[in-house]
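Homework-ish question, so no full write-ups if that breaks the rules, but can someone show me the predicted structure for this set?
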Amino acid sequence: MNFEPDPAIGAFRDEVRTFLRERLPPDMARRTQRGYHAPKADMVTWTRILYAHGWSAPHWPAEHGGPGWTPLQRHLFEEECALAGAPPTCTSAFSLVAPVIYTHGSEAQKRQHLPPILRGETFWGQGFSEPNAGSDLASLKTRAERDGDHYIVNGQKTWTTEGHHADWLFCLVRTSATEKPQRGISFLLVDARTPGITIRPIISIDDAHSLNEVFFDNVRVPVANRVGEEGQGWSFGKLLLDNERAFSAEVPRNKRMLARLRTIAAATGLDSDPLYAQRVAELEAELQALEWLTLRALSEHGTPAATQWPAGSVLHVLGSELQQKTGALLVEALGEHGVIAYPEVIDDVGSPAAYPPGPDHAPGVTADFLYRRAVTIYGGSNEIQRNLIARHLLAG
Amino acid sequence: MDFTLTEEQALLRDSVQRYVEHDYGFERRRACIEREGGFSAGHWAGFATMGWLGAGLPEAVGGFGGGAVETALIAEQLGRGLVIEPYAAVAVLAAQTLRYVGGDRALSLLGEVIEGRSLPVLASGDEPKHATLIAGGPQVTHFLLPMREANGVSLFALRADDLGPARIDYRLIDGSPACDLRLDAIPVDRAVRIAGPVDAAPAIALARAEARVALCAEALGVMGRALDVTREYLRQRRQFGVPLADFQVLRHRLADMSIAHEQARGALHGALAGLAQRDATSRERAVAASGVMCVRSGRFIGAQAIQLHGAIGMTNEYIVGHCFKRLMVIERLLGPAQQRVDVLARCQ
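A: Not a homework solution, just the prediction itself:
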């Protein structure tokens, strides 16, 4: 163990900062900082800018197009991007499906899917949850029945984030009825434009459309689009959710939220209130602990040390609850403006005449706070995470 | 001290409860928000016909002889229904302000309030240049403006029509309409003095205290609805082959929600007792303490109602998210947290 600062890391941070200063369009950064869901156009543009620099997939192995960074470099990169207001890339593609494809996919699947993801040309949506299979994902009912070289898929998926932007869907489907329901599940890559697929919007409590339900009515999917063997889908799904959890500490986002809180508190004079300062101080202390826990988990990834503690679940619980606490303080810091409905202004060319009154820092804060009720639910609810932590502690 | 409702009080509560259950369903509420600007004239006329707009006022001013308890019974049931019309703003804050300042002009306007013909609202702040977050939208008929003069605060009434750019309308996150007023952009001669030059400040303080207690009662009703909906969901929703209600962690969470709900009710009763006290310090203290607890319980119950539902709780089609948003709005209408803490610290 050694925590001496690495002299090379300062140069790396400078390189990232220079890149962001030169390449991140300021209007895009302003939109992202507000906290509304990023428009697809921004995500695509930004992914292409990153790709041109070789940086669109920081955590992928170098052989598949990653930059070959250390865990600390990846962390710093994501932190700098978040603080500068860079929009996200397509998480479902880069962080969820791609690791499954490059780890378990066929050579043909890697060739077909990884390059367009890297270039920001294809967006993906996740088809895991169903109306009656949420926490109990293994009870999923969407069927895929073999018909020659195809599967015929029927059923319904839900909570598909950004599904309305998706070119492709990755789905867990039931290919056989087995005694242990997990064994009958397979992992399919589905072209979202295949006939029989209907995608419908779900409006969430932030009055925004990011979630969708996806209906499958006799959808023909080539057998070649199955990743791995029949019945392996569950273990891929678990791998993917573990990956999702590893990122769900969301340290960069937590830092951006705390920075925004400081800006607003300074603008409103709230920063001179000792009670308020104390509450912000508590969040800062939590954030530092979370950051170092995350760095440790990233460093241990793939080593025997990683099996010694349920890092993904611990990080998910801490990171999600910190976002909600910081969000609540942000809303409070806005005072009366915290309960005003500010519609999202996409074009960003100044507010329309009838826009609700309030300071420039107000729009987006409460919408983001409302949407972030979901962070303790998705990727396995915090109740499920605590069960996993307890199971780990009590096993053996 | 008696916690049992009188026959009249029970009838009043039951009548509001029935109305909310039969005539104020979730879908009708949504239609009102999306198509009627967040206010239904039909509902408001119904409130007047059933006597709710005068239920918390003495007979001497044209009311039906009740007080803060009757107001709280109504507000709690309206909260259960997530009623979007501005009952606390018009029938409590504005009405009690008119009642306590008294005089012919104020009481004449109060009579119209009780009949549902006028909907005045108090524009917040002492002598503000910019009154903000005034609950109520296009249906508001008068703004009641407290203005500081040589002898103290006077109360003016300003007709709400034709205010042009001095008035800025918008929506709150629960779908209810609200507005700001730029007072420096309003010609003074448009406003009619209805109280003063005697000091209207004590009357306004009393009315504010009553309105805050009504908001606490409303919040309690929202919490009760969120709790009931969540309890039903835990019974019906099955995962892992059993109802969610079989999982101990969820049972305990539901128990904590119920504890928080009972705690808020205790706080409300404390505030109602405080309103019955003659001295201002006891009253302010009790009202502030009730606000602290209702906000705390409301935050917990609102958030956990969504959490225990999972993703379905995140959707606008489902009720618990609206409970959460309504509780956020009520918290803000109760005023800043710091104000309550200051009152409690000062009164120690």
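Now go work out the reasoning yourself. Hint: Chain B has two domains: 7-195, 201-346.
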